[in-house]
Amino acid sequence: MLDYGIEDREVAAQADSFPPSLLQRMGELNIRLVVSRCPPDALESSTQTVGLFPQAGEVFK
Q: Most exposed among 19, 26, 29, 40, judged by the fewest C-beta atoms under 10 Å?
């Protein structure tokens, strides 16, 4: 399982996407994708997640 943390944003609708190549490879490896939505300060204040969750779009270009 890959848990990808995404910060909640103050917008009417929030959409985040992943490239098809990532999803295909994860499927081939039988890896589940989980998207965790967190309050804006949760990712910054948690010592367990600092540096582990890049901003959306930075990982698989």
A: 29
Q: Is the pTM of this model over 0.70?
A: no
The DSSP output letter for 22 is H
Is residue 59 assigned to a domain?
Answer: no
Domain carrying residue 29: 2-45
Residue from 37, 2, 41 nearest 16 by CA? 37
pLDDT tens digits, the chain, 61 residues: what are they?
Answer: 888 888 888 888 888 889 999 999 999 999 999 988 888 776 565 545 444 445 555 544 4
The amino acid occupying position 19 is P
